[in-house]
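Homework help board

Subject: predicted structure for assignment chain

Our instructor gave us this sequence and asked us to write out the predicted structure in token form, then describe one feature. I got the tokens but I'm not sure how to describe them. Can anyone check?
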Amino acid sequence: MSHNSVEQIKLPRTLINQLMTHAQSDDKKEVCGFIASRHGLPVKIYPIANIATPAEKLFEMEPRALIDAIKKMRQLDEEIFAIYHSHPSSPAAPSKRDIDEFSYPEALSLIISLNTKGVLEMRAYRMATDHASEVTIETV
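My token output:
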């Protein structure tokens, strides 16, 4: 891959709408979950409860729900395409902690920002050990 080529992903509009709705369902706390794919195409979201404290600034998936979601994906022959979470009051860019604690190297990190009133911003990143590189999202 040459340095100037940016990775692109395709996200169905229905999923984008579900992600935005989930992010807006709690504008004080970060929401989180999985985006599952089949044959490389995103097909479904699995919202997971955020049990972090303070949930305004951090996210931690509820362990039981996380395990259940992964089991369900296996049964349906789905893979983890991305981990998503929201930033209620900061831009759609990963924090140092988001990068340091990202534990799914195969998956993308998708961040939805509610930072700007009335404007939802969604960005995707490929996480590496000490940095994140942005991935272009194409709506399909």
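Reply (TA_rk): Your tokens look well-formed. For the description, you could write something like this. The two ends are 24 Å apart (CA to CA). That's the kind of observation they're looking for.
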